[in-house]
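Predict the 3D structure for this chain.
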Amino acid sequence: MVAGLNVIVDISHHNGNVRFEKLAQAGVVGVIQKATQGQSGRDPTYNSNRTKAKDAGLLWGAYHFATGSDGVKQAEHFLDVVSDSAETLLVLDFEPNPTGPSMGLEEARAFVSHVKEATGRYPGFYSGHYIKQLLGTNSDAVLANCWFWLAQYGPTPVVPPNWPMWTMWQYTDGAFGPDPHSIEGVRFDRDTFNGDESQLRRLWGIEGNA
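Done. Predicted structure below.
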């Protein structure tokens, strides 16, 4: 597998009761949790997991699962649920929506622009084949301001032309993709960071600016 700092997992309520102290003991540094979906959905475990993760000394991030509706309203809902975004890594999850309309490029631009206006920084942009399908070989000047989180469960990361490199790579969903899949015997979505730990903390806004 491509070299990187393999110290991040991403979760949602589907992960059930996560033992964050075990993740920290196993060398995990950061956790990114689903916070919201669409204009009103929220993950019921978000607040409790944030408290537990921070108590375990882990960096905390939040992602929004995009749907095909007003991008600004989705961003407002996301930021309202996240509440304190100062040391929370923010991400737009841009992938096909299996239960309804999927977010388009114009809605994505509106979402990331509103997050930038509200917080002073662009969110990360998580996607895989969907953004490659929509952009092809073209570029998008607004979305290019976001750092890129690649979703691809193969041995070699392939980044769309809109970004010079991946910042994070979700290389497995706990079943497909290169090893390792599990931590302490439990399977997770696992993510590699393209840099060292000091750079990871800067991305998070913990030490200096992203």
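Residues 105-119 form the longest helix (15 residues).
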